[in-house]
Design a protein that fits this description.
Chain lengths: 499, 332
Amino acid sequence: MNSADYALNMRGISKTFPGVKALSDVNFSVKFGTVHAVVGENGAGKSTLMKVLSGSYQPTSGTIEVGGVEARLRRPADAQALGIRMVHQELNLVPDLTVAENVYLGRMPGKWGFLDKKDMLQKATTVLKEQGTAIDPQERLGNLSISQQQLVEIAKAYAADPRIIVLDEPTSSLSEHETAALFRILRKMRDAGIAIVYISHRLKEVLEIADEVTVLRDGSMIETRPIAGVSASDMIQLMVGREVSNVFPKSPAKIGEPVLRVNAISDGVNFRDVSFDVREGEILGLIGLVGAGRTEVARAIFGLANVVQGTLTLNGKNVIINSPAEAVKAGIAYVPEDRKGDGIIPAMSIRENISLPVLKRLTTLGRIRRNADRSLADQYVKKFSISPPDPERRVNLLSGGNQQKTVIAKWLAATPSVLILDEPTRGVDVGAKAEIHHIIGQLVADGMAVVMISSELPEVLGVCDRIVVMRDGQASPPIDRQDLTEERIMALATGEEVA
Amino acid sequence: MSEIASETDRDSSSERFARGSRLVDLLSKTGLSLAIVTVILYGSFSSPVFFTAGNFLNILTSMSIIGIVVVGMTFVLVVGGLADLSVPATIACGAILSLGLQPIIGPVPAFIVAVALAGLIGSVNGALVGYLGVNPIIATLGIGTVALGIVQAAVGGVIVYGANPSSAEFVKGRLFGIPVVVLIFLITALIGHFILSRSFWGRWTLATGGNYSAAEASAVPVKAVKAGAFVITALAAGISGGLLGLTLQSARPLIGQGYEFSAITAVVVGGVSIMGGFGSVPRAIAGLIFVQLLTNVMVLEGVRTPVQGFVLGILIAGAVGMDSALRKRGIA
């Protein structure tokens, strides 16, 4: 087979962000007329690789050939000019335009700035018909269901006459029936010679639709295989199979009575009937794939989102929490996943960030007691060895790890009885990671109850006492760590095994 | 602006541009004080009247009425509320009510009622912006128009005149040799500065403007804080309007026209970020001093009014442009 049979040939792609190597020496090739699945855990490098392919990121090193010709993709427009189209998980459509207008958005047919509506409508009708969908091209897009909109998004990519289409979790909002319809369209496009890159967590679907599969793990390409002869458990093994290293084992703390009990809570959208409890001195892991509803559960417990059903019991008493302020008062703290978006106030100093949730306690007659404010910050800067050890330093000038320590300090200052940590070690270097594990270990040794959300299986297995696995908004009962392996967790998270 | 720089200023501003070049850093710290000194020097050489106690007292007095609004407006910008465009209406409300109610309930209660009702306008603004998430420009524009309409209808006339000369005497008079209006401005500024830089409410205001969702996740009552900024501004505008009415002894519905623009100009020229999360009362007042001095020099020089407007317009556009540029370097 010569290189012209390959729609895409990425060689030795590496991408380094400050402090993190997101991709290292990845080789990835896709043939024309095939569906090529890409699987891997959260953070394995799938989206980074696709961003390199779509021209959003520049690789640190490596070459890309599209259709046998070497290409430099400096910006998304370059990739589009070469016939590379992305269909993202979040839809990029305009609700107030018609289906036809959306399909031809940015490439509307016409002359001298005048739109040829008839031509556009005709073309859109043809495209939709070719795909075998029953969507009226003159319908306002916003009137369609999400799954129909998804099909329009695909039609939009298809109408651009692409050579490569990348689909990122296209079935996450589709029912089984709609998924089958999508697969028919994908097969049609494949048979027309288009190369389709299919990213999904759903291994069953990968087995059904893909011709080849590439497994990524920790930013490296592990293996590319034809799908024939591959089973779901093979893929899981390849996705997680790594030595357990860099894990700070938890110092054994005395486990006491349940502190927080979550009784069958639902938010009506992202999760339902979630129940678990977390005990004094215990670290409870809450894990699952992206979109499984972990973060949503945490935000709901903390009062950042509504719970429509179910109750919370804190230290034996039923509590109702409608806002973070009430959560803090009740003794629940939450270190959010999105550190920059929800964690720090970038323009404020370490001191001002740390005292924010407890500001009222440091106040006399409306005035913040300067000494109390300072000594609180000093205490945590020292305790967590935040570097540089200057409480007046603006927090956005710190490294990721030190920002995270500042956010954790902020919450400990509120002396909670339950601490929820959402991806506390994401994007921090190995040293800071160990320090954060050490801090968590100290907290539970002092009797705090900790809920930890993490995508890193070795971390979860190394640190947590019990683990709740979430999938599609539902949670398994807490499982003791001794009864779990990485493979079993992945099986539970992907639905290959039911707890 | 070293003459009025305070400790909190140094706390936050010294680091703001830490990633920028040294020149940018230096300019951002000293630019405004340099500009003020330049205007004073130029004015002193070009006009014999400029550098006189009489002229400065003039500037200070005319600055005071708008200065009170500037103190309030600082909160709106810092909290990330863009701007309060209901200020002209609130000022008119303060002026008309504090004069119109005089014959009925006496001057002091009239003033208090005027300010309280101004505060009510602010709470409606605040409820719309903070709790319902309406765009502040639209909300304050709409509520301002509504409020002005109600006040006019209630008063009935077009112009309201004062009925109590002694209250006018008091406002125009002096205490310890300082005009009363100036004293009230200074007290308002001190209170505003205390709230923004020393109180928990001020810290919450800065946090809400700096990162709304992080502040919310840190148990800051963000909605109330955002609404509060509009109440503070309305109270300030009410006081300002009341004083304006008492000074002039007459009030028309359009009495407050242009004050919102002057206040926003001063705050922005003072380096308070229009995106929120950064700024202080002393900075805003420094901006006001600069704008007032510049206007005064232009008036003394005989610069025509349209040209004055042109210069101030350029100034505000330049200041906002500078803020975005610095923000890119500093915070991004």
